[in-house]
Specification:
heterodimer; A: about 550 residues; mainly alpha; B: 3-stranded antiparallel beta sheet; two-stranded antiparallel sheet; 6 strands; elongated; disordered C terminus
């Protein structure tokens, strides 16, 4: 058979395949219309396939959800960047907030220890320092740090302390269902002295190294192999990058270990826990010692490379690599010490718990039989129980009125003026406050602003008022308030005033655009002409006299 | 006038003073001491309480009378009356977190069922312990879900199907307000509210500010938990467990009692 015959046979086979209706073809990769053949790529094969797996293969569809989640973790960073105009205006145009966000997570992750983290101010300082490098003329760089941190800390961007959320699809018997999931990048904690600190979550570290969920231990070993290979081949720049990833892996590993040990402490007396902790600690010790050894050998190799290096640049890189590896090594040393202590701590706790006699069978186990089922149930159901608990956990509430004495006191009490918007707020919760709204304008500020606007009997330009306001108050608040009052004068609510203040002439501020724009130290925009206008109360029309002679 | 009825009304009046112990009031002490030997008094208290919409949980010689309001009665204290921000129907996650904090405190004060029968037990609990304990439980639930690869995220349009522990995790632990104080919507603030509320209800005493606030149990808490946990609360939990598919289909059956 020559080449021409082969081509002819293939062409015939292709023709037959195309003639067969799509639906008749069995759903196996070989019999399916090939996605690689451009002739087969018609809309019909997408429409005919009601099984989503037909579109790009079953495994790919199942992984859509996983991939969506992996991408979602970076959303807070993208949102920071997308909103930078709103957050900082033109002054932030040269900043790259995604980089700054990465840097913030970086700083937090590197400061993390077994039970400590990074201080807010520390992170803000680090981010603002980098921001100043992005743009040397940046005003108020600390504010950049604060906003970046707010965007990354869970729940700071919304009014409620709720986590960042994403949605993904899952496939089940009912077809496609959109599901919601929550995640956090940086979390806030309080230490023993009441100070705040930050920790980076697993998700955040995943974002940093750009890897999907992997087994951390295997990833650590693989990273070391790559690292030693890179060092052997003298590729130091790549090795530095790899060492950095290895560092994040060890942070992630310590975090996982910390969680596992903390969990085990809760269940000291459950059968098997002691053995499980032993295995966990043994395994972790072995792993940590291995890492430590291979780090040492890589450091030795790099040191040799550095000493042989001719070029100053290579020596500098080698030094950088060594310092990174030493940081990793220190982390592992500390983890090792902590692990050696963990077993003893746990055994002590276990012995203390075992000294307590067993329970009579009639009592419920509060955790196993109540708390855990409640945590596992849906919010709907748990809400029922919450209401019940609240009722039975409290003594009966005081009725509004029980005796004549109270009634008399209540009737004679000076009435409290309640705000239209709600009842008075509880006092005595000084340590628990909602995040306060920023109060821009105090009373002095209002007095100054009203004073300036009061003189505006004759029409006056907003720009001159603003300049006067800035001269009297350098914080800029008065100028801001004057500008806002002027803007408000565009629509002073005439209809409402006429309705309420009937029968009297009232003054309102009126404003028109001049058609020019102005710019002062704090305010810029269209210039306005402000004046006072009088509203004459409308005279009610004379009632018509039905007997009057109509001349016409 | 029947002396039982007069005494019953007098005794019931102490039900509104949860922090008062019988030892501090001669009349109160006389009434609770005679409780066991006076079936007439018992019947009268039950009848009056029933009419008022109050449920007598227990009358104990050292703790005094422990009672609570019946649902929809005139004396019922609603969550919204106390947690103003949780009044809105949609703020169920705050109410649930409050309840979880209460239950976690119960568990930490009485880690083993036998502790509920130890009359002299005085336990200490701190806000940070409660936080750490619930966080640990949530992590464990997460791991179970991961291990069984169960999909439990709620559909986007049905937030009520979110699992309670996820609601706890989602809410921040602590948040620093712009003036460096603690925000009131975080889990740690809700835990602090719950503990403070238990102090008002005569269940705990605050002993210090260490570790986020340290508290000591009062005997009333033991009586309350012992009487309620195995009965009313447990029935409600069973109803929940029946209504909702558990996160782990096979592992949870062994957890649930027969």
């Amino acid at each position: 058979m020559n080449e021409a015959d082969v081509e002819r046979l293939l062409a015939e086979a292709g023709q037959r395949a195309r003639e067969r209706p799509v639906a008749d073809r069995p759903f196996v990769p070989g019999g399916r219309a090939s996605l690689l053949d451009p002739d087969e790529l018609s809309a019909t094969i997408w429409d005919d396939g009601d099984d989503p797996a037909l579109l790009s293969g079953p495994a790919a569809v199942a992984s859509l959800g996983a991939r969506t989640r992996a991408v979602a973790y970076t959303r807070p960073l993208h949102e920071l960047e997308a909103n930078k105009g709103r957050l900082g205006g033109d002054a932030w145009a040269r900043l790259n907030l995604i980089e700054l966000g990465f840097h913030a997570i970086d700083v937090v992750a590197l400061r993390m220890d077994f039970d400590a983290g990074a201080r807010h101010d520390d992170v803000i300082a680090a981010v603002s320092a980098l921001a100043r490098l992005h743009d040397p003329h940046l005003p108020a760089a600390t504010r950049v740090g604060e906003r970046v941190l707010d965007g990354l800390i869970t729940g700071r961007s919304t009014t409620d302390a709720e986590a960042h959320q994403g949605s993904y699809g899952s496939w089940g018997p009912d077809g496609y269902v959109a599901k919601r999931f929550d995640y956090a990048l940086l979390t806030e904690h309080v230490d023993a002295d009441g100070g705040f600190y930050l920790r980076a979550t697993d998700a955040a570290i995943t974002v940093l190294i750009g890897a999907l969920e992997l087994d951390v231990e295997s990833a650590q070993i693989a990273a070391e192999l790559r690292l030693s290979e890179l060092v052997k081949r003298g590729l130091l720049t790549a090795a530095i990058e790899e060492a950095k990833r290895a560092g994040y892996r060890s942070i992630q590993y310590a975090e996982q270990l910390r969680r596992q040990l903390a969990d085990a402490r809760l269940y000291t007396t459950e059968p098997g826990t002691l053995a499980a902790v032993d295995t966990l600690v043994d395994h972790a010790l072995e792993h940590v010692i291995d890492r430590y050894r291979s780090e040492r050998s890589i450091i030795a190799n790099v040191t040799a490379t550095r000493d042989d290096a001719e070029e100053a640049r290579n020596r500098r890189r080698a030094n950088q690599l060594i310092s990174q590896l030493q940081d990793c090594e220190r982390r592992h040393q500390r983890l090792h010490k902590r692990l050696l202590r963990a077993r003893g701590d746990f055994r002590e706790l276990h012995a203390a718990q075992l000294a307590i006699p067993p329970a009579p069978p009639s009592r419920v186990d509060l955790e196993r039989q109540i708390l855990r089922p409640v945590l596992e149930t849906s919010l709907d159901g748990a809400d029922h129980l919450a209401r019940l608990l609240f009722r039975v956990g409290a003594s009966p509430a005081h009725p509004p009125m029980v005796d004549l004495g109270q009634l008399a006191t209540a009737l004679c009490a000076v009435p409290v003026d309640l705000d239209d918007l709600g009842t008075t707020v509880d006092d005595g919760q000084d340590d628990l406050v909602d995040a306060p709204a920023r109060l821009h304008f105090d009373d002095d500020c209002w007095d100054r602003a009203e004073g300036l606007l009061e003189v505006a009997g004759a029409p006056v330009r907003l720009s001159s008022l603003i300049e006067r306001a800035e001269a009297t108050d350098d914080s800029g608040a008065t100028a801001h308030l004057v500008a806002m009052l002027a803007a408000h004068a565009f629509d002073p609510g005439l209809a409402e005033r006429l309705r309420v203040e009937t029968g009297e002439d009232t003054a309102v501020r009126a404003v028109v655009r001049v058609g020019e724009s102005f710019k002062t130290a704090t305010i810029a925009g269209d210039d306005l002409l402000l004046s006072r206008a009088w509203l004459m109360a409308a005279q009610p029309p004379e009632p018509a006299d039905p007997w009057a002679f109509d001349g016409s | 006038m029947d002396p039982d009825v007069a005494d019953a009304a007098r005794l019931l009046r102490f039900g509104w003073q949860p922090r008062l112990l019988p030892g501090k009031d001669a009349e109160y002490l006389r009434l609770v001491r005679s409780w066991d030997s006076r079936p007439g008094l018992q019947a009268a208290v039950e009848t009056i309480a029933d009419g008022l919409g109050v449920w007598i949980v227990k009358v104990d010689p050292t703790v005094g009378i422990v009672c609570c309001a019946e649902a929809d009665g005139p004396f019922e204290l609603r969550t919204g009356d106390f947690l103003r921000q949780a009044r809105a129907e949609s703020q169920w996650s705050q109410r649930v977190i409050f309840a979880v904090a209460l239950l976690a405190t119960w568990r930490l004060c009485f880690p083993r069922p036998a502790h509920l029968d130890q009359l002299d037990r005085v336990a200490r609990v701190s806000a940070n312990e409660v936080m750490g304990y619930v966080d640990g439980l949530c992590d464990r639930l997460d791991e179970t879900v991961d291990a069984f690869e169960t999909d439990i995220d709620p559909p986007v349009d049905q937030p009520g199907l979110e699992r309670a522990w996820r609601a706890w995790q989602r809410r921040g632990r602590a948040a620093r307000t712009s003036d460096g104080r603690r925000s009131s919507r975080t889990t740690s603030a809700l835990v602090a509210r719950a503990l403070g509320w238990m102090v008002d209800q005569g269940l705990l005493d605050k002993v210090g500010d260490d570790d986020g606030g340290t508290y000591r149990t009062r005997p009333r808490l033991r009586v309350l938990v012992r009487e309620l946990a195995g009965t009313t609360v447990y029935e409600e939990v069973l109803a929940l467990a029946g209504a909702v598919e558990p996160a782990r289909a096979d592992a949870s059956s062994e957890d649930r009692p027969e």
